[in-house]
């Protein structure tokens, strides 16, 4: 039964996710926030994102999707991450200063808009980038080269200390986590020492450990 406040039923937040997808970054942020939420599996490997039921929730046909506790739906990693940081300031997932917030959001956007699709989707779903199956190995190699280039760029332009931004742990770290996890754990590619250290620091966080365990992902 749903909890009732002043006669109005309330629901918990719900994350629509797929194991191993970028949604793990949002899962980490939800664990950091510490508020009640539910998980709804959308198995991308089974094309569950293309079912009429899921398309009714997110016509874009992708995860993550966050159903907020008022029942409204929010899509896109950057928007969800920003909302969680702004909605729950006690979790300190967004810097207090607006300029620092912009730096964190800029980093998240670079991960989700450039590093993810060009560096890793090319490796994992090469058929999206060429109509010719014979060209897919070239697409994969291009993805590997771009992923390495992007991670070197992140290392070279690093502004923070242990965490991505100087103000401390933030939404930027959860975004970096899912691509560095792919690079090291899924692809087995070498990464810059700073990226490797960041991944180790992330894997040591209880919120990250809970998110990985819930998805059946290796720590």
List the helices and strands and how they pair.
Blueprint: E1 4-5, E2 8-9, E3 13-17, H1 23-33, E4 37-41, H2 52-57, E5 65-67, E6 73-75, H3 77-87, H4 98-124, H5 136-156, H6 171-187, H7 193-203, H8 206-215
Parallel strand pairs: 3-4
Antiparallel strand pairs: 1-2, 3-5, 5-6
Helix pairs in contact: 1-3, 1-6, 1-8, 4-5, 4-6, 6-7
Order of helices and strands: EEEHEHEEHHHHHH
Largest sheet: 4 strands, mixed
| Low-pLDDT sequence parts | 1-8
Structural class: alpha+beta
Global mean pLDDT: 94
Within the largest sheet, what's the order of strands? 4-3-5-6
Q: How widely separated are the two ends?
A: 34 Å
Name the assembly state: single chain
Strand content: 5-15%
Shape: globular
- Radius of gyration from the CA trace? 18 Å
Helix tally equals 8
Helix content: 40-55%
How many DSSP-defined strands?
6
What does this structure look like?
The chain is α+β, with helices and mostly antiparallel strands and 219 residues long. The chain is built from eight helices and six strands, in the order E-E-E-H-E-H-E-E-H-H-H-H-H-H. It has a four-stranded mixed beta sheet, with helices on one face. A two-stranded antiparallel ribbon has the order 1-2. The longest helix has 27 residues, at 98-124.
In a few lines, what is going on in this structure?
The protein has 219 residues and is α+β, with helices and mostly antiparallel strands. Helix content is 52%, strand content 9%. The strands form two sheets. The chain has a four-stranded mixed beta sheet, covered by helices on one side. Strands 1-2 form a two-stranded antiparallel ribbon.
